[in-house]
Amino acid sequence: MRAVDNVSLTVAVGETLALVGESGSGKSVTALSVMRLLPRRSGRIAAGRILLDGIDLASLPNEAMRRLRGSAIGMVFQEPMTSLNPLLRVGEQVAEPLRIHRGLARAAAQQAAVAMLAAVGLPEPERQAGRYPHELSGGMRQRVMIAVALACHPRLLIADEPTTALDVTIQAQILELLRTLQRDLGMGMLFITHNLGIVAGLAHRMAVMYAGRVVEHGSVAEVFARPRHPYTRGLLACQPRLGEAHGLRAAGISLPAIPGSVPGLRALPPGCSFAPRCPLAIEACRADIPPLCLVGPEHEAACLRSESA
Predict the structure, then answer these.
(1) CA–CA separation, 260 vs 127, rounded Å?
(2) What are phi and psi of 167, to 5 degrees?
(3) What is the CB neighbour count within 10 angstroms for residue 62?
(4) What is the pLDDT of residue 174?
(5) Rg of the chain's alpha carbons, rounded to an integer?
(6) Whole-angstrom distance, CA of residue 270 vs CA of residue 200
(7) What is the pLDDT of residues 74-109, one digit of tens each?
C-alpha cells in the first residue's frame, strides 16, 4: 500500500512550511522519508526524488546520507522521551553530532553542547547536561531534542509535532524558541502539526494532507481566508474560538466535527479519498482522484467542487 502518494513540497531558505492533517494522513511518514529513516522491513521509497541543494537524497548511498543527517538536516521527533537515549546524559546526546559531523574533541563538543542547551533556554545548562532524560520535565526534554537537532546548524529543520503533550505556556516558549533560532540561523523549517492555531502564528505556507496525499496548498493567509477544499474547511470549522465555547455550551451546541474517520490505506475508496465524508461530494468525485489545480495565485486544491467549497 502507498502510505504517501504523489506528494510534492518545497521549503525555501528561512521559510516555514506547515504540514497539517489528522492522525493517519501521512505527515510523519513524509518526514521520515526525507530523513531516510523509514522502518526497513515495512517502508521504502518506491519512486520520486528528495532534493536538498540539488542533491537527491533518495538515491544517496547510506553512508553519504548519514553524513547529511544531523548536519544538513535536523529533526525534532514527536516524542522526546522515546527519542532520547535513556542511558546517556543529555549533554552527551547534544555533543554526539558535534563530534561526528564537526570533528570536535570530546571536551570541546561537551562545551559546545552546554552552550547549545543554554541557547534553547534550558536553565542551569551545565547542571542539566549531566542529567538523564527521565530526570527532566517534558518541556525540558523537548528543548534537549531541539538542541540535538540544531547542534550543527542544519539548513533544514523537520519538526514533527514538537509541542505535543506540552501545556500552552511551554508550547508558546518552544514555538518562540524555534522562531528565534530559525531567524538567527536562516534555516528552512518543515513543521508538522494538527494544531491550526500554531500554523496561523508560525508558518508562511501550509500543505493539507489527507490519506497520504496533499489536498490543498498555499500561503497561510490565503488558505485560512479562502479554504477551497472541503476537508480544509472542516478542519478550520473544528477549531474553538476565543469566547465562543461558553456560548455554545450554554446553547447546548457542540463544536462542528468532520463525520467519519480517515480511511485505512488498505481499503481506500475509489476516486477522492475524502468523498465518503464530504458534504459536497457528487458522483464524479468517486470516479477519479482529483489532481491539485490552481484555484488562486499560488493556491492549489485537489477538489472537483473547489468553487463551491
Answers:
(1) 49
(2) -70, 165
(3) 8
(4) 83
(5) 21
(6) 33
(7) 999 887 778 899 999 999 999 999 999 999 999 999
Residue for cell digits 514533527? 160
Alpha carbons within 13 angstroms on the beta-carbon side of residue 196 total 20
Check: pTM over 0.85? Answer yes or no. Answer: yes
**Which parts of the chain are beta strand (E)?**
16-20, 51-52, 55-56, 73-76, 156-160, 188-193, 205-210, 213-219, 293-296, 299-301
CA distances from 170 to 21, 111, 133, 200 (A): 23, 26, 17, 18
Whose grid coordinates read 488558505?
A: 223
> Are 212 and 10 a contacting pair, CB within 8 Å?
no
Q: Dig out the grid coordinates for 247 from the structure.
A: 456560548
- Name 17's bridge partners: 190, 205
For cell 536538498, the residue is 52
Q: How far is CA 96 from CA 68, 104, 111, in A?
A: 14, 9, 12
Q: Cell numbers 465562543 correspond to what residue?
A: 244
Per-residue burial over 189-220, b if 16 or more Cβ lie within 10 Å, else e, is bbbbbbebebbeebbebbbbbbbbbbbbbbbb
Smallest Cα–Cα separation from 163: which of 77, 237, 285? 77
With a cut of 90, say whether residue 194 has pLDDT above it.
no
Quick check: helix, strand or coil at residue 159?
Answer: strand
Please count the residues of the chain.
Answer: 309
Asked whether the predicted pLDDT for residue 126 surpasses 80, the reply is: yes
State whether residue 285 is helix, strand or coil: helix
Identify which of 150, 146, 139 has the alpha carbon closest to the alpha carbon of residue 102. Answer: 150
Which residues in 255-267 are b (16+ Cβ under 10 Å) and which e? eeebeeebbebee
